[in-house]
Description:
Structural class: alpha+beta
Amino acid sequence: xxxxxxxxxxxxxxxxxxxxxxxxxxxxxxxxxxxxxxxxxxxxxxxxxxxxxxxxxxxxxxxxxxxxxxxxxxxxxxxxxxxxxxxxxxxxxxxxxxxxxxxxxxxxxxxxxxxxxxxxxxxxxxxxxxxxxxxxxxxxxxxxxxxxxxxxxxxxxxxxxxxxxxxxxxxxxxxxxxxxxxxxxxxxxxxxxxxxxxxxxxxxxxxxxxxxxxxxxxxxxxxxxxxxxxxxxxxxxxxxxxxxxxxxxxxxxxxxxxxxxxxxxxxxxxxxx
Length: 273
């Protein structure tokens, strides 16, 4: 049998050298990665998160930059309990710790007050109307009384002296005046002309003489966007009729100007004859 050849000393030395080189390279790579990770993760370095809730966006940015952090606005909301345009929530929370150059996520309060659509309050009781307004963030700042067939019911809603209709958007916290019905008087009043007026204008016109709106109908059902475009083309009783104080006048509304003009001419002719 042939004897198995033993590796030469030079071959053994070559393998050992390569293994040693590989080990050294591996150690150097491990050290380099460790140093890089410590630098990348800022190992052992932390900053305390400052309190920025209640600050404006600009103030919060300055404070966070001073702590080697930066701000990211993730959402906005509306809260009546916090000043407008300020931070209402932050993550991570104040006084916790984070690495430098990390973001702090904030939720901002809106810069303007919430706009609230006015609900339909005509012909509901004063108590119910006042409670409804209070529940949605509006207030009754004044109450006026006018004679009506329906005592204690809301006849009109006014803002800054002007009648407003359901759907009108008011800033939260705004005050309104409610015109409330009281028992009719014994006086007689003459029905004014309402043709060409809007519903809000007609309410004001009638209340000035002691009358109120009764039934009102649209020739085409309006949308919130078109509501203010409607004008009165027919009223009953017609202008000049004598009624008892507190009585109602029924009206019809349209956006068709030609129809309104034609109806106005017809009713003028009826009064003439």
